[in-house]
2-oxoglutarate and iron-dependent oxygenase JMJD4 (Nyctibius bracteatus), 427 residues
Amino acid sequence: MDRATFACSTAFFRDYNSSSQGAFCLPEGHVDFIEKVESFTYSDFFRDYLIPNHPCIFSAKFTEDWGSRRNWVTWDGKPDFDHLLQKFGEAVVPVANCDVKEYNSNPKEQLPFKEYIKYWKEYIKNDYRSPRGCLYLKDWHLSRAFPEQDVYTTPVYFSSDWLNEYWDAIAVDDYRFVYMGPKGSWTPFHADVFRSYSWSANICGRKKWLLYPAGQEEYLKDRHGNLPFDVTAPSLQDRSVYPRYNQSQRPVEIVQEAGEIVFIPSGWHHQVYNLEDTISINHNWVNGCNVAIMWCFLQDELAAVQREINEWKDPVDDWHLQCQLIMKSCTGIDYKEFYNFLKVIAENRISVLENGLDDEASAKNTPKAAISTLGMLHAVFDLKRTVKVLTSLSANEDFKKLDLTSLSPPPEALLHHLKAAIDTALL
């Protein structure tokens, strides 16, 4: 590691050690706007937004060199349907109907991309009305389907991304999405997968965000403990249905312009509207700053499953395994996969700390290259946070009841390796 990188890493680590979660407070309802690329560092973002878990907005200057901002947008700021059809016309995409409620979400179907664009053009022509309803292209894994396309570059502030690092490693899934929708399309009230962070960049169009800080959602639950589908619905004023609504804070409201990026903190519930015909790039991500929140979320999810099927506990021999299977079907992960997730993240950092980065790896867009870019002390920070969560997981009674013989290395051995790597790196 050269002197400049070491100096940056040392400053970053000093900034972290001099701050604490919750010590940095924003005025209620205020969201910082980050204007200049050249004067805002990763350490600034880490200290002022990741650790305190506060939102912010990045100006359009942070995305002005993206291929999608140059090529997907017409001269007057509208989606360039002809260009999009040329590049992606034969793709099949997930589309939600915003006019239909299915449980606490919207029903989805798979449509040819060219059919969706045809619908969208007709929807605009008919003054944003259609007998098919308001259709919203959501959660499209475009980067995975078209890796050769020059769409965007992940900003360095979001590069410590354990979710996509892990799912890329096992080549199963990713949490990088494209959203496209007409004016009036929207996403109901929710918090992001695993209570992850998210970032959302508008390629064109404008969005309105209603954000509730983590914990505020408790005041929005109805008398049965269910969250609302729409936080703007008049029914929330009915105290017989939503008895604690009047105790909730007003939401933080953001109007996001074309080119801007919104950072959504971990566990913040939100509802989002497209104020114009809009295209956005979205990532969900977890790292050392919020992995403990992900672990708490998984414990809460398992506890909810256990309560739901508690009456079957005694007659079913593999009840604990069944609970894990149900949790995985609902959330996408169980305790054993969470262990493997932590292992992959840890081993990537140990490899860089112990072996450095070869020229071939540094030239590629790889997790190890990202680790090196952020600095060796960031890798140590990641390992320390992994040790804390892995220690808690290993001591968890539900985890210990599972058949752990398939885990390699065993949790105790991995913990020992992690602690030794940290000690060696700090010598």
Notes: The chain has two domains: 27-285, 290-426. The radius of gyration is 23 Å.
